[in-house]
Amino acid sequence: MKELVVISGKGGTGKTSIVASLAALAGSVVTADCDVDAADLHLVLAPTVRRREAFSGGKKARIDAGRCTGCGRCAELCRFDAVVVEAPGGFEGLGLDLSAACQNCHYCRRSCPARVNSEILAMAQAAGGGAGPRLAIDPIACEGCGVCAWFCPAGAIDFEPSVSGEWFVSDTRHGPMVHAALGVAQANSGKLVSVVRQEARRLAAQRGSALVLVDGSPGIGCPVIASITGADLVLIVTEPTLSGRHDLGRVADVARHFGTPAMVCVNKWDLNADLADAIERDARRRGLAVAGRVRYDRGVTGAMLRARAVVEYQTDGCAEDLRRLWANVKAALEGTPADG
Ligand code: SF4
Ligand code: SF4
Question: What is the pLDDT of residues 283-328, one digit of tens each?
Fold first, then answer.
């Protein structure tokens, strides 16, 4: 079993369209969508979900109002400004001198350029009484560092695993697919990428599939590193623009750092043939093989609108380029040592 990871230095290069065509051409394949921050391979492969699992990427703090003494230590220590003062009835009800009607939105705490959160807290506490101000943790702003829970003198902060997304095993017309959905404003996408990749490899081994085809993340961050480490081959998709050329260099450095063999594909090459030539020269100078070029073709949009891979939608134009690309990538994969 081999593992091919398709990545791009930047978003918008057409990586996912290429992955969909490779999935259609590959035959015995398990596909994994590891672009978990902006997953969209499902739009083309139309998976039917067979299994879904919750994903916990970390922990979040939560204040138990019954145990909290309102000392404010957590607000002082949280460097992410995630501890907010809640005032039943709004800060206006606490007698603070606010000209507009307070909606209790905490904008002042989050946006104050002087970061005088402790003053805001002190004012709210001083003006308290009756229902009084309450401290709470904004689950979006909380980074799960655990400092508040560690130092709370009353032991009033619970620090528990939080569900930050889901992952799925599905059937598609081109075999099984493992994919995921990260919740809004949730982090730890690298950990989720590892889960998706691991499950895809497990499934491929179980079914005797020849290939795990991974749609990786754009950029050079944690999710990309989690996508490529230990893979047999990385295919870097770029486009003939200055940012495409620049970002190809950065992501090629990441692949080299982790010792993952890489090839390059220039997508929409004919939009700027000179730059496409320059990118391929750069790639060869770095010791990267050029797997192929794919021309700009409106058929890509037509295929997308019909939820089809380009090679399922047409046989000419860029579909010919994609078949050539797959032949080169397949040959390179077969030239790498077998994986167990
Ligand atoms: S440190 Fe603990 S007791 Fe003090 S305000 Fe925060 S949660 Fe309440
Ligand atoms: S866990 Fe860390 S980020 Fe979250 S509220 Fe506590 S101190 Fe702030």
Answer: 999 999 999 999 999 999 999 999 999 999 999 999 999 999 999 9
Find the 58 Cα to ligand 1 centroid distance in Å: 21
- To test the pocket of ligand 2, the residue of 81, 83, 110, 151 to mutate (highest count of ligand atoms within 8 Å of its CB) is 83
Are the CB atoms for 18 and 322 separated by under 8 Å?
A: yes
Domains within the chain, CATH numbers bracketed: 2-58+165-334 (3.40.50.300), 65-155 (no CATH)
Tell me the one-letter amino acid at 209: S
* Burial grade of 175 (CB within 10 A; 0-12, 13-18, 19 or more): buried
In terms of Cα–Cα distance, which of 5, 12, 19, 10 is closest to 303? 19
What does pTM read for this prediction? 0.80
Tokens of 152: 């709370």
Q: How many A from CA of 148 to the centre of ligand 1?
A: 8
